[in-house]
Amino acid sequence: MSFSAATAYYLLMKILVLNSGSSSEKCCVHEISGKVPVLAPQPLWKADIEWSGAGSGLGGAGTANLEITDGSGSLRKESLPIESRRQALERLLNSVREGPAAAVSSLSEIGVVGHRVVHGGAKFVAPVIVTASVKNGIRELAAFAPLHNRAELEGMEVVESLLGTVPQVAVFDTAFHHGLPQAAAVYPGPYSWWENGIRRYGFHGINHQYCAERAAQLLKSDAAAGLKLVSCHLGNGCSLAAIDAGRSVDTTMGFTPLEGLMMGTRSGSIDPAIVTYVIRQQGSTPDEVDRTLNEQSGLLGISGISSDMREILSATKSGNSRAQLAFDIFIHRLKTGIGAMIAALGGIDALIFTAGMGEHSPDVRAAACNGWGYLGLSIDAGKNLVSPVDADISAENSGVRVLVIRAQEDWAIARFCWALISANGKAADT
Question: Which of 70, 173, 244, 349 is catalytic?
Answer without folding.
Answer: 173
